[in-house]
Write a structure and sequence with these properties.
This protein is α/β, with parallel strands linked by helices and 448 residues long. Helix content is 31%, strand content 23%.
Length: 448
Amino acid sequence: MSDYDYDLFVIGAGSGGVRASRIAAAHGARVAVAEEYRVGGTCVIRGCVPKKLLVYGAHFAEDLKDAQRFGWNVPEVEFDWATLRDNVLGEVDRLNGLYGQTLSNNNVDVILERATVSGAHEVTLASGRKITARYILIAVGAHPHSPEFPGSEHGITSNEVFHLEKLPRRVVIAGGGYIANEFAGIFNELGSKVTLINRSDVILRGYDESIRDRLLQISMTKGVEFRFNCGFESIDKNDDGTFTVMTKGHDPLIADIVLFATGRVPNTDGLGLAEAGVELDQHGAVKVDADNKSSVDSIYAVGDVTNRVQLTPVAIREGQAFADTIFGNKPHRVDYDCIPSAVFSHPPMAGVGLTESQARNKLGSVSVYTSDFRAMKNVLANRNERALYKMVCDGTTGRVVGLHMIGPDSPEILQAAAIAVKAGLTKDQFDQTVALHPSMAEELVLMK
């Protein structure tokens, strides 16, 4: 018999924690997972899944308009926010149940209360019960950062935006990253007046400059207002329930909601990690090695709480690697090179590998190929919006080191193309591939 109650105790039942729990249990470990909110984590409950469903809903605004050019007699239509909101939340409930069922089917004990670390091999539940485990895995994720200034308590974050009672007429969004630009596109398509406030002079820092500049141009054409190098001074609530937003160097804004999309912070406050000897970085993230181990040999961490790469598929791979290494006698590590990512803006953008500037700094000699075109659907719809594909290659070997694109279905196209980049294929091998015509994806093998 083991000296511990469990072989593995996981704190947090998000994507990384669920994968680690399920795989560890499949390897024969006795596993428990504690979750203080709902099983599924940020992605399923209040992140990428419900947000993507809102993106789909918002796309119908353009699709219904375009349909008339394709011969459809579209009557006057109205959008009902409550219907979309409730259907999205219903899907979240369904997925929450499925995640819980998956854990149960894999003989993982699910404890629906908060757990904190009280020792190298011990956790304490909110009820006061103490549980011991040979290993403890921290998979608590992160939460939205909210800036502090006079009236900032009137702002909301992406956690609350899915539960709005009604569609706001005027939306002020703070931030320049993917969350800010995605919700800017959603609300703009649904008919809200959107103003995006960014304290720097660029959006989507880290993405390829040509692609993010194209998104900015298209977003402005569609009516999204951008205020750069702009900071908040205050938010005042008016008698009618609206808000007056004061910013530095700009005219006041009247808004129905103010949405903060200014980054995410690891959920380590009050978790007892520092007291247990676990080293945290300046942002509160758990410091881990390549095998996800913290400074305490029995305590590991995966996912956003480590602040390495805050992406759901990465958390899942980290959870898998942890469970296989510790319990499955199949040691392996996550390869963080060439991770594809997407921004589900309007239109969406996606990329993998090095941007042009990164490639020039790293390789020196770089060859860049582009395709700037209107999608066939946009041509017939009389929509001037142009897609842009960009291929970045090692100037010496011709190896494709980066692919970046913006346009309809870009994330769907890039997923397959990312395999080629990961495999180290060359521009010549792309060129030798016969185009699939007519499609947008064929531009990948026709770039000049």
